[in-house]
Structure formats: structure tokens, C-alpha cells
Design brief:
This protein is mostly helical. The protein has a domain at about 70-180. The protein has eight helices and no strands. The protein has helices spanning about 20-30, 65-70, 75-100, 105-125, 130-145, 155-160, 165-170, 175-180.
């Protein structure tokens, strides 16, 4: 049975861009084989749900890891599949960076493109997550970065000090989350 998602009070959609279309196309290719494709309107739905309560006894400092530890085996399997799709989008980003380098683009231009692609990839892969999990991740990012999807390119530059370091960080994944889901961390 299908349930409807309430209309967002503040749109999460950040506008149509060539990068967004490329990532959406890649996601369709990656997920079609699995028989799992979320309706486009669901990818940007803001869900008003109760706050996620994470077990206080969780020993991880990463809230996402604590949420994973509370999942049922079925939810964990779905989270792992979502994470694999996210890794595949990160692979695509590495290819984009290589192509841009070969075309003589500056590190700053490449970094800005990759940060945008990474945030789009997060937005897209979250479409396959539970509303509660999305809400928790977005709340964390709003508190930390002022953006539900994560840091901007300028915030990353301020953190890492160079555009080449931002490029490297853009295709890195959270080692703690990857390990919790039985995956090899990327970019370490």
C-alpha cells in the first residue's frame, strides 16, 4: 500500500542543474537493475516525523552508526544497498574529476563540481531511506553546516586549506558508517 508524503513547508530542491540531471540519470541506471526506483517526487519530500530517538548506550560517537545499530536486519540490508549505490555515485564523481583534470580544469572548478555532485548524491540516495533517518541526517547537517545536505565547497576549502584536498575529501566516505554496514571505506 502506498502512503502519501506531506508537502514540504520549505522546498529542499536546489534547482535543476546539469550535474543534478547527470546524477539522477546515474541513479536510475544503478537502481533499475535492482528493481528499486523511487518516484522522483519522493526524493525531495520533507517529512514531518517525530524526532529519532537513538539508544543512549551506543558506544559510537557517530549518530548514523548508532541509528544503524538499532535497525532490524531488513532495514540494515536496505541501508547497505543504499550505501552501495552511494559508493557507485562516488565512483562516478572520481571519473568526472579525472575527465575535468584531463580537460585542464582548475582544482577549484573540479572541487566545486564534486562538492555539488556529492551533495546531490546524498539527496538522491536518501530517497531510499526511512523518513526518520533522513530527518536525523538533515538535522545534523543543518546544525553543523546550515545546509541539509552538508558542507558547501567554500566550507570544505576553509576546513582543508586547498582545493586539491577538497577534491580528495569529496569522494571519501564515512569509514565508521561503511564498516558498520560491512563495506570497505573509500578514500582512506
Amino acid at each position: 500500500m502506498s502512503t502519501s508524503v506531506p508537502a514540504p513547508t520549505a522546498p529542499v530542491h536546489r534547482g535543476a542543474s546539469p550535474t543534478r540531471f547527470a546524477v539522477l540519470f546515474l541513479l536510475a541506471l544503478l537502481t533499475a537493475a535492482n528493481g528499486f526506483l523511487v518516484a522522483p517526487g519522493q526524493a525531495h519530500a520533507a517529512v514531518h516525523a517525530a524526532a529519532v530517538v537513538v539508544d543512549e548506550s551506543c558506544t559510537s560517537s557517530d549518530a548514523a552508526v548508532c541509528m544503524i545499530r538499532e535497525m532490524t536486519p531488513e532495514q540494515r540490508a536496505q541501508a547497505r544497498e543504499t550505501r552501495i549505490r552511494y559508493h557507485q555515485l562516488l565512483d562516478s564523481m572520481e571519473r568526472t574529476a579525472d575527465e575535468m583534470h584531463a580537460a585542464g580544469r582548475s582544482d577549484e572548478e573540479i572541487a566545486r563540481t564534486l562538492v555539488d555532485m556529492r551533495n546531490e548524491a546524498k539527496d538522491i540516495t536518501r530517497a531510499g531511506m526511512s523518513p526518520e533517518a533522513v530527518q536525523a541526517l538533515e538535522a545534523r547537517n543543518m546544525k553543523k553546516y546550515g545546509n541539509p545536505l552538508g558542507p558547501t565547497a567554500d566550507q570544505q576549502y576553509a576546513k582543508y586549506g586547498s582545493w586539491s584536498a577538497v577534491i580528495a575529501a569529496a569522494t571519501r566516505s564515512s569509514a565508521a558508517v561503511d564498516r558498520e554496514l560491512g563495506l570497505e571505506p573509500r578514500g582512506r
